[in-house]
Structure formats: structure tokens, C-alpha cells
Write a structure and sequence with these properties.
The chain is mostly beta strands. The protein has no helices and 6 strands. Strands 1-6 form a two-stranded antiparallel sheet.
């Protein structure tokens, strides 16, 4: 699994969620975004292929 974004956002508030049903409910606290780089997270087989070299 790989998790990333296309740009940085102002803030995400998690409102609700259920791991058994597999959902998360969230709302952005701002409509702005910046050009700040975003991280990439990888988990699972071959996840080390995504580390910085």
C-alpha cells in the first residue's frame, strides 16, 4: 500500500471512522493549499523500494 497526496493541504479533521466497515469521515478545515512537498508512506512487500536513495 502506498499513501501520498498531490499537494499539501491546510488541515484535515477526522470526524468519524470504523475499521470493521473500512471507512473514515473527514473534513478539511481550510480551502487553501501550498506548494509544500508531501511525504510518501509505503507498507507491505517491497515497501523499502520507496525509501530515499
Amino acid at each position: 500500500m502506498i499513501v501520498t497526496a498531490d499537494h499539501e493541504t491546510g488541515g484535515l479533521t477526522l470526524l468519524d471512522g470504523d475499521t470493521k466497515r473500512g471507512y473514515v469521515d473527514g473534513q478539511f478545515s481550510t480551502s487553501d493549499h501550498t506548494g509544500v512537498m508531501v511525504p510518501v508512506f509505503a507498507y507491505g512487500p517491497h515497501s523499502l523500494d520507496f525509501r530515499e536513495i
